[in-house]
Amino acid sequence: MLPITSVTGRAPLASLLGYVRPHAGGLLGGAVLMFLGGLANLAQPMVVKSLIDALTGGTPYREPMLLLVSLLMLSVIVGVWGMYLVELTAESVVLTARRRLVARLLRLRVAVVDGAEPGDLLSRATGDTTQLRAAATSNVVDLVAGILQIAGAVVLMARLDAVLLAVVLIVLLLLAAVTLALVPRIRTAGEQAQEAVGGMGAVLERALGAFRTVKANGAEERQAAAVHAAARQAWRRGRQAARWVSLAGIATGLAVQVAFIVVLGVGGARVAAGGLAVSSLVAFLLYLFYLGGPVTQLVGGFTGLQAGLAAVRRIDGIAELAAEDLDRSVDAPADRAAPVTVTFRDVSLRHRPGGPAILEHVDLRLPATGLTAIVGPSGAGKTTLLALIERFYDPTTGQVEIDGRDVREWPLANLRARIGYVEQDAPVLSGTLRDNVTMGSAHAAEPWLAEVLERTRLVPLLRRLPDGLDTLVGHRGATLSGGERQRIAIARALLRRPGLLLLDEPTSQLDAMNERALGEIVAAVSRTTTVLMVAHRLSTVTRADRIVVLDAGRVRAVGTHADLVDGCELYRGLAATQLLTGAGTQVQVPRQSSDIAAI
Ligand SMILES: Nc1ncnc2c1ncn2[C@@H]1O[C@H](COP(=O)(O)OP(=O)(O)OP(=O)(O)O)[C@@H](O)[C@H]1O
Fold it and tell me: Topology with regard to the membrane (predicted)?
């Protein structure tokens, strides 16, 4: 799991204001309108007082009456308009946060995402950003508006009676003390609740990500229990947060009630003693009555803000993770197609300090063009070699060079634009076949696309599908066979006209005919492109220009099939297991296939 919260970043409040800043205009406008609505509210008791004075004194009351009605209407209209503006701003703040977060998430380094839970990342982009909605806008507005309205009420109350004001202030101070004592608890419980929701997302994503495996193993209940446990944890933390927030709410209500009763008692006594006019007591009580709103607003804003700040810390936690610097100034496609040389200079890799060496002192030189195969036992480090070329990881020592230049010095987008990479499990994304094939080359010309589809033998599949290339393939290409997914991944890589083609077991799910066809494609491509292919089935690599035998992270031998059968015991063993050293068992991969044009 990732570090849950930001540890080194800006203070969460400063960070929260950073999300608000681009939308400060809307928020300010909304706040001003709400404030004006509050002022209109605030003025009403004074007008009620003059109305009572006019009625009891027999003076004209039409004017105060009209003024009161106008104030009432103004407070409602302006207040609602202000609230609408604040809500609009809230949506914009969430959109800004989501855009920033998603842009960051997709640029995270592979090694970082390897150690993260996708479900947790997802919950940060969805749930935590939603938490910002209230925190960045209505909570802040509530806080400011609450403070201003209370200050205004206090000033006006002071004009009515200082003794009663002292009573009210004492009660308010007590309430402030209680609220401040509760805030750290609310914040911690809020943080833990959001962390637990992230945990629940992680468990659920794991279960849904291996849905068929879960079903095939009859593990539905076990997985459901794990999700339930995480949900229960989220519920427990949420309940804790709710308990503290409710307590703050109760304290607020109680404080207002107590102030009301005490003011009524003390004020009544002062009226009886002739020290206070009835109209002043009524006006004071009305202020107290109105004060309930701003006080609740202030406490609610303050406690609500805590959940938002917890979310900010989780969102900022992503910003602190290592991300790639993707310079988008990609070279023209013509340059990308030029074959590249690949050099590994004394490359060693450990995924973490003190961890096992995945690769050790690897030295390799691949010339531009030609097919190089990597073979070796499972876990030897074959996929990791390809990952270093793509810069998914950086070597712990040594360096990987493309065209004689350290891959760390290449603008990342340019480096990857030169490479076509077919992953081991050939992932296909939800969407159409066209989306999948053109994922890395959105502007590929139609004739080139048609040619690639032809070469990867996808045309019969397209003819069968109802909407051809525009057929939806389902989540992770669920409606396709493993071999079809693999051919789509190969088409995707070839469409980019790469200068270097990396193939990680591209034939593992292909039948013999398609495997042979792929062999022909690879042979043709390798005449104009550098091809590096990981293979378990030696039948696919016997005609490679060179074969690298990798074992436990070390290069044991490099040579042609014939060289290695003679000179490398490990290779001979692999070949013998696959019956390749016997006569007549090799699948012939044509090196001079005339029917396939160079790609
Ligand atoms: N992100 C990672 N963190 C730690 N160890 C890893 C990571 N990725 C791979 N490994 C380990 O590195 C070793 C080499 O893995 P790699 O996938 O490169 O092997 P491989 O030769 O391609 O295996 P296979 O033929 O089974 O695909 C394995 O022992 C694997 O467990």
Answer: Multi-pass membrane protein
